# Entry
Amino acid sequence: MVGSSKFRFSYYVTGILILLGVLLGRFICGFLCPFGWLQELLHKIPSPKLSTRRLKPLRYIKYAVLLIMVVLLPAVIVNTSGMGDPFFCKYLCPQGVLEGAIPLSLTNAGIRAALGKLFSWKFCILLAVVVGSVVFYRPFCKWLCPLGAVYALMNHVSLFQMRVDRDTCVSCGACAKACPMDVDITKTPNHAECIRCGKCIKSCPTKAICYQYGFGDKSKNRNQGELTMKRFFAWITALLMLLSLAACSSTQTSTAAASQQASTSETGKSENELIAEENDILAANNALWEKVFASMDKNVTDTTLSSNYGDILMNALDHAKDQFTDEEYAALKADADKIREIETQIAALPQDEAASPSMTQTASTFPQFEGKDLDGNSVSSSLFADNAFTVVNFWFSGCKPCVDEMDDLNALNQRIQEQGGEVIGINTETLDGNADNIAAAKQILEQAGAAFRNIYFDSASDAGKFALGIMAFPTTCVVDRQGNSRWGTDYGRD
# Structure
């Protein structure tokens, strides 16, 4: 899942780029890119126009930008959580300044005050591109754009191609003169720089040039058969790469989903399906239930944690009934009754005898563990028995939503201590006692003023495997004295 601390490569993004490249190639640059469209508009401004034919070596700069700023630097220069900056977007791409920084700064004084050297630098780049676009045709596309470099590499294998009829072509050179990207289409119909703009088609006096989509090629070029076969195998290779990347990105997601798959009830519905129904019921009156949830923690006890979730909701609703009209109360009560019935069905689900012990444990019971807190003090799963209930929060240092909620968790910890509860944090990057990651986690906690305990354990243990199997962060669950978890990701509740 996107956002997991365990992934270091953007499989989804790469797969989508490959797919689009296979389908369209640099047709995307010619007709779908908004920044390319802006450059073309600027080029229409009356002024002396300069040719870029003698500047062809500059086109290789975009491949260097792709390799260095998009691939190498984010992989080599990383923060404590192992994440790299988007160096191209941050330091070179002018689109963010044009479409984001400038409009926002014009309407917000706070943003204007926060603008610094980086904005000034990128504004200068934007200004250079704007001026360059007036005198040169698409300078950013030709020389700097790494996305254009990706699609350029896919141009030869894309399904969208240019075709030249050799029998009809008279080699007049009109197409080469008309091409704003400095391509001789008669020599290389699918040149990496061709953006499929169609100006060569319009300029051809014999109509020898046309678009072609798919594998078919009706030209009588003697080398056509060989080229078509090469194109076919190249396309198949690209497609297989796409599928493999998608498979890699979904392996852990599908594994986690399989480990959480429940037995079906008499109605033929699985636990996940029943929980989805509960979430839909709550979502229908979300604004009203938010008011109920705001007061729910005041009424949490060891007894209510083991109760039917519908009863817990009804109990909280009764304490907050003065906040609602009679109609609103009736609607919420009906929701609670429906959820009570669904929870009864979930409780009646048969145990899957074929499930492995670890699967059963992960679905309902927090795994046993022995570990330490971030100060080096020994801890174990016996801490659950010492508390009336324990709120367990899974997070990692590079997760901004995780960090943002630290002060709220600390406040929650102070409130529930009066009820015998405790908040426990588990930073998945500190497993196995990684000293650097522990130091980073402690710094984050200190800056947030969070004093609740954070613990770690062996990643190879059942608890470690359980923590590393979590695919969305932050995730919070509530654990009772017996180690039974509720309201975590296993139950589809945040």
Notes: DSSP finds 24 helices and nine strands in the chain.
